Amino acid sequence: MYDAPTAAEQALQQHDIKISSRNVQVYYGDTHAIKDVDVDIEDKTVTAFIGPSGCGKSTFLRCLNRMNDTIDVARVEGEILLDGENIYDKKVDPVQLRARVGMVFQKPNPFPKSIYDNVAYGPRIHGMAKNRADLDEIVERALRRAALWDEVKDRMSAPGTGLSGGQQQRLCIARAVATEPEVLLMDEPASALDPIATSQIEELIDELRRNYAVVIVTHSMQQAARVSQKTAFFHLGNLVEYDDTSKIFTNPEDPRTESYITGRIG
Amino acid sequence: MTDATAPAPAAPAAGGKRRSLLEVDERTRRRNAAEARFRLYGIVAISVGLLFLLLLLGSILFNGLSAFQQTFVQVPVYLDPERLDPEGNRDPEEMRGVTTFGYKPLLNEAVYEKVQSLGIETPLPEPAMAPLLSDGAATTVRSFVLENPDRLGETVEFDLLASSRVDGYFKGRVTRDSIARDRFIDAAHLDLADAMNEAGTMGKQFNLSFITGTDASDNRPEQAGMGVSMIGSFFMMLVVLILALPIGVAASIYLEEFAPQNRITDFIEVNISNLAAVPSIVFGILGLAVFIQFMHLPQSAPLVGGLVLTLMTLPTIIISTRASLKAVPPSIRDAALGVGASKMQSVFHHVLPLAMPGILTGTIIGLAQALGETAPLLLIGMVGFIASNYPDGVAAGFLDPNSAMPAQIYEWAKRADPAFYERAWGGIIVLLAFLMTMNIIAIILRRRFERRW
Ligand SMILES: Nc1ncnc2c1ncn2[C@@H]1O[C@H](COP(=O)(O)OP(=O)(O)O)[C@@H](O)[C@H]1O
Ligand SMILES: [Mg+2]
């Protein structure tokens, strides 16, 4: 549950800006899906994107690691700075970017390979391990971070697709974490899971905040309130309000935010 | 829909009494009857299909199995040195001077003597033994002599091919009525054949050379075999596999995973689907124009046949490969891209392995199609008449004239002598055996590689 931070805690929470977007527009063909979004995402913080379905949360999230490049009709305008560098610069190779900005998808999507290979895949293609022992260590560390190690350490060669839904999603988190990203993007990571698995994932997200900037899209306002420190409310492609989560949920400035969190729109 | 618009039960719950679940109402009964009828139609349709399949298989086996058996005559032949090696040098080069015509009297004698020694009564004189034996019998003996000149002067036991008339008699194709006006053979020959059969010196045996042998000329159907055309088909399939698989898979991967969606790729896509529907004879005439008349590749060569069949098979392979690439869930691609794999890595590490069973199945089905294809081969002359035996036939390889199994079958079916008709059916059995093997391989591969995600 969300506890209101004390003043001292709030002082501690002054984090660096990890990602900042300026005048971001996204078009799908003629559809203007994201309009003029400016947002500063802090490091070592969980930022939640909320809003009614179809308002562009996923679209904006996918801008942050250029996954929209894979959609032919999608076009992104504006600037998104990661540590001050524009990720949409012509010189940026999206493949390199995605190693630094990891992503976890709505539906758990482990590769149909062993648990070990799932986690080791990223480190392998990025040449992060010099030898097998190195790789073993990376895999173990990632699985520990994803709070999955104890459950799978005895069956590393079992197929990842044989795990339960919640375990699969944690495996996907481990896979994303294994490449040592700086930012973790999660698109409704718990929407396909049961309540117990969901709370495990939420605890995990809170843990991950120590090392990463986490951005999570969620359709559940309770979830946003539970796990995030910052919340951005999107509506019809606009970023309506972006503030501390406590502020958004207790004292929103925009009437649209208020009607959404009180259940009048959405 | 119909449920919604149907008139509601006369009175709403308040007024009428509740219907019992134990009695079926009119609507439900009609619906159940319709369902039962539909099932019946389905069963009838499947039964009709099965019936035709059985008829087809039955008639193929009925007509074709006899081609795998052939009538042979066992006779001891005295290899007379005076007639077979007039110079007396035992020099195979000189002995070639004696053609098969020189051997025929020898064989007639041998058969006649055998008949006499068995005590069979026959009105036929010695020279009239000829119609019992195949023309190929003399060739058999001559080849033996040329290979073993030192055995001249001995009496050697031979299994000689009987003529197609006699063979047909034992298979029920030739009867005393049917030969009434035959100038080659008459009833006395058949009586003799019966007697020899009883005496155990003439009879049907399994005929390996139908599978391994070469084609034979019009008047010796008993000698014709599938072997050389099998080699021709094999070389063509090799060309198709080597060319069509990599080209097809590369094209599909590009179109499916890399190409932008625009007018040009749409146009290409539509045309690939159209190509799959182009009659195969069109590919044949294209091959004739391009490969033979323009590029001057030799006629009747398996290379050209293979190229034509490659053109024909490519659309099939591309369509099935694209379908199996499409069937790989996009979430797998997202997952790979999400951890920083390049497009190519995501395709080659994850998508392609998952699509592999489908690709292999499609390829094998494409190959099977190509294996059975006849029309384009006729246009590029893949109906070479090859009567030379293998070592030469194999060495000939990709560029020398050859035939192909279906073309060979067509050739036989075209010939006048009904003995070839049996050969054609037999050839179809061989062809079907190949096709079935390929399909079974496809099924096994699919089972082996199938993975769930
Ligand atoms: N691949 C796409 N092609 C075209 N339009 C899309 C695509 N993905 C999303 N959209 C459109 O963009 C808008 C925002 O979608 P999305 O970002 O998925 O919303 P959310 O995640 O907030 O539910 C929607 O109107 C949707 O129809
Ligand atoms: Mg979404």
TrEMBL record, chain A:
<dbReference type="Pfam" id="PF00005">
    <property type="entry name" value="ABC_tran"/>
</dbReference>
<comment type="function">
    <text>Part of the ABC transporter complex PstSACB involved in phosphate import. Responsible for energy coupling to the transport system.</text>
</comment>
<keyword id="KW-1003">Cell membrane</keyword>
<keyword id="KW-0067">ATP-binding</keyword>
<dbReference type="GO" id="GO:0005315">
    <property type="term" value="F:phosphate transmembrane transporter activity"/>
</dbReference>
<dbReference type="InterPro" id="IPR003593">
    <property type="entry name" value="AAA+_ATPase"/>
</dbReference>
<dbReference type="GO" id="GO:0005886">
    <property type="term" value="C:plasma membrane"/>
</dbReference>
<keyword id="KW-0592">Phosphate transport</keyword>
<dbReference type="GO" id="GO:0005524">
    <property type="term" value="F:ATP binding"/>
</dbReference>
<dbReference type="InterPro" id="IPR017871">
    <property type="entry name" value="ABC_transporter-like_CS"/>
</dbReference>
<dbReference type="InterPro" id="IPR003439">
    <property type="entry name" value="ABC_transporter-like_ATP-bd"/>
</dbReference>
<keyword id="KW-0472">Membrane</keyword>
<dbReference type="GO" id="GO:0016887">
    <property type="term" value="F:ATP hydrolysis activity"/>
</dbReference>
<feature type="domain" description="ABC transporter">
    <location>
        <begin position="19"/>
        <end position="261"/>
    </location>
</feature>
<keyword id="KW-0813">Transport</keyword>
<dbReference type="InterPro" id="IPR027417">
    <property type="entry name" value="P-loop_NTPase"/>
</dbReference>
<keyword id="KW-0547">Nucleotide-binding</keyword>
<dbReference type="GO" id="GO:0035435">
    <property type="term" value="P:phosphate ion transmembrane transport"/>
</dbReference>
<keyword id="KW-1278">Translocase</keyword>
<protein>
    <submittedName>
        <fullName>Phosphate ABC transporter ATP-binding protein</fullName>
    </submittedName>
</protein>
<dbReference type="InterPro" id="IPR005670">
    <property type="entry name" value="PstB-like"/>
</dbReference>
UniProtKB/TrEMBL annotation, chain B:
<feature type="transmembrane region" description="Helical">
    <location>
        <begin position="230"/>
        <end position="255"/>
    </location>
</feature>
<dbReference type="InterPro" id="IPR000515">
    <property type="entry name" value="MetI-like"/>
</dbReference>
<keyword id="KW-1133">Transmembrane helix</keyword>
<dbReference type="InterPro" id="IPR024573">
    <property type="entry name" value="DUF3333"/>
</dbReference>
<feature type="transmembrane region" description="Helical">
    <location>
        <begin position="38"/>
        <end position="62"/>
    </location>
</feature>
<keyword id="KW-0812">Transmembrane</keyword>
<dbReference type="InterPro" id="IPR005672">
    <property type="entry name" value="Phosphate_PstA"/>
</dbReference>
<feature type="transmembrane region" description="Helical">
    <location>
        <begin position="275"/>
        <end position="295"/>
    </location>
</feature>
<keyword id="KW-0813">Transport</keyword>
<dbReference type="GO" id="GO:0005315">
    <property type="term" value="F:phosphate transmembrane transporter activity"/>
</dbReference>
<feature type="domain" description="ABC transmembrane type-1">
    <location>
        <begin position="230"/>
        <end position="442"/>
    </location>
</feature>
<protein>
    <recommendedName>
        <fullName>Phosphate transport system permease protein PstA</fullName>
    </recommendedName>
</protein>
<dbReference type="InterPro" id="IPR035906">
    <property type="entry name" value="MetI-like_sf"/>
</dbReference>
<keyword id="KW-1003">Cell membrane</keyword>
<dbReference type="GO" id="GO:0005886">
    <property type="term" value="C:plasma membrane"/>
</dbReference>
<feature type="transmembrane region" description="Helical">
    <location>
        <begin position="301"/>
        <end position="319"/>
    </location>
</feature>
<dbReference type="Pfam" id="PF11812">
    <property type="entry name" value="DUF3333"/>
</dbReference>
<comment type="similarity">
    <text>Belongs to the binding-protein-dependent transport system permease family. CysTW subfamily.</text>
</comment>
<dbReference type="GO" id="GO:0035435">
    <property type="term" value="P:phosphate ion transmembrane transport"/>
</dbReference>
<keyword id="KW-0472">Membrane</keyword>
<feature type="transmembrane region" description="Helical">
    <location>
        <begin position="424"/>
        <end position="445"/>
    </location>
</feature>
<dbReference type="Pfam" id="PF00528">
    <property type="entry name" value="BPD_transp_1"/>
</dbReference>
